[in-house]
Amino acid sequence: MQKNIVELIRDDSDYKELVAKRSSFSIKLSIIMLIVYFGFILLIAYFPEVLGTPLSEGSVTTVGIPVGMGVIFFAFIITGIYTKRANSEFDDLNNKIKDKVKGM
């Protein structure tokens, strides 16, 4: 019986849609985050003077501090975007699939 349910779910069009949308969205967000992160690392590697520039005359805080914090905040924002979509669209599809299975 369990194997039947797994096969039915795997062949379900809503399940295929869920997997495709979730995978596509998470890959896009991952690529965006990797670009931001590696862009920051490459900036450190090739243009350290940019990030080492003081924010103002006589300041000990450099441009690198807010830029680094920006990368961290960007990661939180990306996580929030994924969570918002997962809690709405992905959960709706997941519930549809569960309802179909319960009806069997």
What does this structure look like?
The chain is mostly helical and 104 residues long. The protein is 84% helix and 0% strand. The protein has helices spanning 2-11, 13-46, 48-51, 64-102.
- The helix-and-strand class reads mainly alpha
- One letter per element, helices H and strands E, the order comes to HHHH
Q: What is the percent of helical residues?
A: over 70%
**Mean pLDDT across all amino acids:** 93
User: Describe the biggest sheet?
Assistant: none
- The number of helical runs is 4
Distance between the termini: 11 Å
Strand content: under 5%
- Low-pLDDT stretches are none
Radius of gyration (CA) equals 22 Å
- Backbone shape: elongated
**E-strand count:** 0
Provide a brief overview of the structure.
This protein is mainly α and 104 residues long. It has 4 helices and no strands.
Keywords:
104 residues; mainly alpha; single chain; elongated
Which helices and strands occur, and which strands form pairs?
Blueprint: H1 2-11, H2 13-46, H3 48-51, H4 64-102
Helix pairs in contact: 2-4
